[in-house]
């Protein structure tokens, strides 16, 4: 019943380490595989007007930065990382493809990897389309933000 | 980073075994504690008209049956079960209280423990109120039902 291939969906924030550590603690006793995946946001959605930058250059730079952080996460894991994947597009769809291609049986994702509604819609898509188990880890800054919002009101 | 106290929320369906087995596989390598919790539904919600039964008698019988199944799950786990809890009321609220009281750091719940929206709202409550990790396991019959719905349309 132990997991055989754990796919960790990271957003490259400093808390991504926590997700990887949790996956390692689950994988190590059973020599399970761990893969990392980062799904880039769709940059064109971020710009609603004319901007004074070359979008493609910006995209390339951000993708390159993402690859550096992703490789650093993998090399600091203290455990062999089977695949280090980088994708772009709709979060849930990219995840589903990766799960199927690599036969993952658990997806680990953080709370603030995306907004709650998007995460929930992705989790629903995942469960309905892949029947994969999903571990949701609340990450600190997101929770602190919500607590602050409560204090202000 | 390994979990220390895993709380398994079971709905007493035959698939509850799967949730317990998954929890055991995560707990065993680290000698973590496992507790089971069942949150009974609010029976008064089920009856919208006059009914020819004594509600309290019915409640007691269902609760008694639940206790028998819960104890059987615990004794078949092949691993010591620290607490076997039975509650009734609002699912998310009962879970939050149990998590706080027993210091659980992971909640394992099945997909068809409740309807999706209720499960999601519970998961959101859990994460925001307790900062606890949540493992969602899709259970077969729920997924089959949804697949059937797609085929019919």
From TrEMBL, chains A, B:
Keywords: Cytoplasm. Pfam families: Usp (PF00582). It is found in: Cytoplasm. Residues 3-138 form the UspA domain. GO terms for cellular component: cytoplasm. Its main location: cytoplasm. Homodimer. Belongs to the universal stress protein A family. This is Universal stress protein. It comes from Frischella perrara.
């Amino acid at each position: 019943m132990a997991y055989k291939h754990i796919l960790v969906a990271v957003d490259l924030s400093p808390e991504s380490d926590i997700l990887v550590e949790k996956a390692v603690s689950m994988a190590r006793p059973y020599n399970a595989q761990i893969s990392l995946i980062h799904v880039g946001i769709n940059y064109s959605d971020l710009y609603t007007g004319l901007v004074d930058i070359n979008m493609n250059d910006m995209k390339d730079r951000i993708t390159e930065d993402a690859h550096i952080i992703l490789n650093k996460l993998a090399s600091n894991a203290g455990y062999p990382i089977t695949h280090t994947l980088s994708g772009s597009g709709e979060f849930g769809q990219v995840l589903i493809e990766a799960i199927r291609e690599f036969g993952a049986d658990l997806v680990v994702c953080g709370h603030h990897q995306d907004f709650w509604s998007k995460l929930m819609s992705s989790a629903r898509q995942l469960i309905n389309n892949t029947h994969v188990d999903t571990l949701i880890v609340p990450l600190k800054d997101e929770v602190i933000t919500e607590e602050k919002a409560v204090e202000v009101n």
